[in-house]
Amino acid sequence: MRQKPKGYFSLVLHSHLPFVKHPEHEYFLEEHWLFEAIIESYLPLLMNLSKLEAEGVKARITISLTPTLCEMLADHHLQEKFAAHLNKLIELSERECARLANDGVYFNVANFYRERLYALKNFYENNLQGNALNGYKNFMQKGVLEIITCGATHGFLPLLSVNEQAVRAQLRVAVMTHEKHLGVKPRGIWLPECAYYKGLDKLLAECGIEFFFLESHGLIYGQPTPRFGLYAPVFTPSGVAAFGRDPESGRQVWSSIGGYPGDADYRDFYRDIGYDLDYEYVKPYICPDGTRVFTGLKYHRITGQSEYKEVYVPEHAAGKARDHAENFHFNREKQIEHLSAFIDRPPLIVSPYDAELFGHWWFEGPDFIYHLFRAIAKYDVIDPITPAEYLEIYPTNQMIHPTPSSWGKDGYYDVWINPQNDWIYRHLHKIAEVMQSLAARFSGTKDELIERLLNQMNREVLLAQASDWAFLITTGTAVEYATKRTKTHISNFLRLAEMIDREIDEAYLAELEHKNSIFYGVTFEVWN
What are the φ and ψ backbone dihedral angles of 343, each rounded to 5 degrees? Predict the structure, then answer.
């Protein structure tokens, strides 16, 4: 019989993208956020989990699939666009192999991409039947993945909490959408932006949520101070468990200075043939208006801090991913040995990251995860575990009041409310107030058209609440698009609200239902 492990390790991946769907356009740049994530992050992770399963290696990952991401992955229109995008990349990789046939250096990289894209296509079509959710459900049912939810549209809950019902709506829709796509209610949640405020645990408990995650200071500065620091969960006053992020393991991956992704042999994210090659050659594979974009075919490695870049060697990068996984495991083992002197149980190290870091930003990241679980199995001193599994082993934990916090810059709310984006919130608060009032007024209505109208208003207010828009405005990324999306959803909501006691423009309503086609099966009654 195996002895109790020295410690536990919980890998947590937050998979999220805002709802972006534009059926009115054949090509829409921001839809490619989803396509890139599927190709570079989601499919490689699922393929590596399949490899681990075939090798008999135990893996445990807690992964959030946000409601907006689930809706997009299951959307037939976006699935068709993704399939066309993948085929286009395969066509480009074939052209690149032909162009570089006599180049002994770059041909190897081009051929690497060609083989990789064909493997991804085969896995997506034959193993997943054209829907990545099938892969997640498969590993969830086998106990490899603990899939948790998030706010319906990743709304920043502390800044919505002036109307408690707005927070309830975000949580209720999240639970309903999770069950719709995955067949079970979620036991855990990734709070949008890890943002917590006093009293949120009560609403989580109402929705049947058993655990969530916090940035380290959200626990450390709680009252009273947690006896075991970040290395055992705590219970909030409402009985929901909170797990704290371990900063040490986080730095090894996140740090732009000392983190693994900055290694010289790893693929450079910014050098891409969409920018490097002749315009006429890449024109069919970039924006139709001629705007250059990333294609995903990148031939250079990080090399160093200068603009000079050496050619990417996939075999060397693969070796580094293995070495770094071994080093990460070694450091966790030493960390656990140190912590064990201060804790009356095996320490739990919780390492949360954005899922898209692994593959999209750090191309070799999915292979790092693969090698990490192989290292854990090889040395057999640390147990990979999910929070739900941990709570079954250790159901008794200290109760504290966590402190308000987020995992954004400086640890609180500044990223999502500052002079650049603070104009958003008076509108979000007003439309939430109107939505709550109308939901109460028409509760139980038998008028199908009124119900359709209110259901669409619910979609519009939830989409307007997405924290992504305020975040993008702050970071200066896609500011125009983020601002337009915020204003458009607010405008849509107000125009629909004006129709309540007047004639309903069914053509306009149908147009919004087609375009912003999210959360079907959810009614406006979530506001009651």
Answer: -130, 140
